[in-house]
Design a protein that fits this description.
The complex is a heterodimer. Chain A is built from no helices and eleven strands. In chain A, the strands form two sheets. In chain A, strands 2, 4, 5, 6, 9, 10 and 11 form a seven-stranded mixed β-sheet that branches. Chain A is an all-beta fold. Chain B contains no helices and eleven strands. In chain B, strand 9 and strand 10 form a beta hairpin. Classes of the chains: A mainly beta, B mainly beta.
């Protein structure tokens, strides 16, 4: 069974440039999550999707971050414009169920460096 | 909001020594999950505990959920170099459609061979 796929694995951009990350969850997983992980910290939820609906985006900085999951499968997270403080690892995860049985499967992440 | 705290932040052991990391929540948890992240890797699910006082074992790893469901621990017996990584606990902040996992900062375990 293929795991969660993310691309690119690494991205280096200059500040004020746009950047996009792509995620393909495990087949059949309706719930998709985007997390931000800073060095030495645990993952922090940015947004959660149930199928194509964003059910929790309260932690997403909406002035510069946007996300979509148009067909309820793969998803894209965008930052425009990027700031120096956005340098981090962006993790995508998926789960078969949400809630009490929601073991989350993480992708390899995209390491973003903003210069 | 809910806070999940882990101690210690770092732990260095000699191979063969035991290791324990502790997780404390500011609120009562319906369940707690543990993840392991190898250096340069991504978090991998280890286990979920649901019942008060629950103890689960996976080979050399023992997981415990406190009676009050506000704390948890992970104990590794006779560590090996393959145990190196950061161990995170994560607890849900609320139930139902607002389910959201809050991760602790993790405990980084290094093992000297």
């Amino acid at each position: 069974e293929a795991g969660v796929v993310q691309s690119p694995r690494y991205k280096i951009i200059e500040k004020k440039q746009p950047v996009a990350f792509w995620c393909n969850p495990i087949s059949g997983h309706n719930t998709l999550y985007w997390y931000l992980q800073n060095l030495g910290q645990g993952p922090e939820l940015l947004i959660r999707y149930e199928n194509e609906e964003a059910v929790d985006d309260s932690q997403l900085p909406k002035d510069r971050f946007s996300a979509e999951r148009l067909k309820g499968v793969d998803s894209t997270l965008k930052i425009q414009p990027a700031e120096l403080g956005d340098s981090a690892v962006y993790l995508c995860a998926s789960s078969l169920e949400v809630g009490e049985k929601g073991e989350q499967f993480f992708g390899p992440g995209t390491r973003l460096t903003v210069l | 909001g809910q806070q999940v705290m882990q101690i210690p932040q770092y732990q260095h052991v000699q191979e063969g020594e035991d290791f324990t990391t502790y997780c404390n929540s500011s609120t009562t948890l319906s369940n707690i999950q543990w993840y392991k992240q190898r250096p340069g890797g991504h978090p991998v699910f280890l286990i979920q505990l649901v019942k008060s006082g629950e103890v689960k074992k996976q080979k050399r790893l023992t997981f415990q959920f406190g009676e009050a469901k506000k704390n948890s621990s992970l104990h590794i017996t006779a560590t090996q170099t393959t145990d190196v990584g950061t161990y995170f606990c994560a607890g849900p902040s609320s139930g139902g459609s607002n389910y959201k996992l809050t991760f602790g900062k993790g405990t980084l375990l290094t093992v000297n061979p």
